[in-house]
Each structure stands twice: as structure tokens, then as C-alpha cells.
Amino acid sequence: MTAAISIPLWADLLAVGVAGVQGAMLAAELRDRRLDLLGVAIVGTATGLGGGLLRDLFLGVPPTALGTNWYLPVAVLAAIIGMLLQQLFARVDWAITALDALTIGLFGAIGTSKALSLGVPFVPSIFIGTVAAVGGGIIRDVLLGVPIALMHVGSLYAVAAVAGTFLLATLEYVAVPIEAAAVACVVTTTVIRVLAVRFGWSLPEQRALARLARPRL
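The chain above was modelled as a monomer; its predicted structure follows.
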């Protein structure tokens, strides 16, 4: 059993804030949804906190986000900022993409290490870490009624999280210190995600197996 990694509160709040900004930006772009200020705040907050809440729900532990007075206000404030400054953030989309990739890596590393520390087996720990990394995005897309990002052809959103969490669990299994394994997870996830966005990498679109034509007699 390993010890869960811990990161400074400010770093965790930064990750929540970036996710909240992105969720609100997407909500503000969908003009046809006609969301008011409260609606955008709810979407942004759900995006920022969703992954951590799902992680703790699967692990059966008290939600970290509800354990202090910081997470909810930061998520709500980030959502409002994301809505009001949507055009400004769109101009520096590359920076938001990089921060988003880093956020996915951080949430994945924290989720996987927390699962391992509670005695969750290898494969389920990877699953929980991946859910923590992409859960906020899933909840955002469900609330907005848009195609879920990791289920259609895209830029390896969930694949990057799986790669990073798998690497962390593997390194921990061979007795690499959890801090080093976590850094490797974050770097791997971030690099894959950024490169996928930059070069448009994606998984192949699903194809049905064509039936073999029977020769006519």
C-alpha cells in the first residue's frame, strides 16, 4: 500500500479554477443554450469540482471539496471570470490548453495515488484516476447537452489521462517513490494532451465490420 501524494492547497485550487474557467468558457460560447449567470456558474463549478467528487464517491470517502471553505468559492469565481472574460481567454487559447492538460495530469495523479493508498487494486486505481481527470469534463458536457468529449473523435482527452495514470500505477508497483511516479504521470499526461491538440491526433473513428459478400453461384 502506498501513501497518497499531497500537493499544496493553492495548486489544487488552481487546478479547480482552470477547470472552472474552461467549463464556463464553453457554456458562454453556446449562445443557443441561453444560459444566465447562475447557469454558467453551475456549469463552471461542476466542471471544476466534478472529477474530485466522482473520485471520492467511487472511493467511499468524504468529498475533499466539501471539507474546507475554499473549493466552492474558487470554482464559482473561476466560472464567473471564465464567462465574463471569455473573449480574452480565447485569444490565449494555447495557454488555457496547456493549463488544462496540466490539470488533467494533476487530477489523475492525485486520484490514482489516493486509490492506491486506500488499497484499491491496480486496474481499478487507474480507472479512478482517469475518472478524476476527466470527470469534470463529462459532467460539463452532460449539463450542456453536447457530445461528451471523450466519446467522439477528438484530441486524446481521456487517452492522455489513461496513459499517465497507468504509468503512475506501474511505477508504484515496481517500488518507485510515489512523488517521482506522480511527476511522471503529470508530465506524460500533459505532453500527450498538448501534442494531440497541436497536431490533431485522435483515435480512429468507429467502423462497423463489413459482412463478407458471398459469391453468387
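The CA atoms of residues 27 and 40 lie 6 Å apart.
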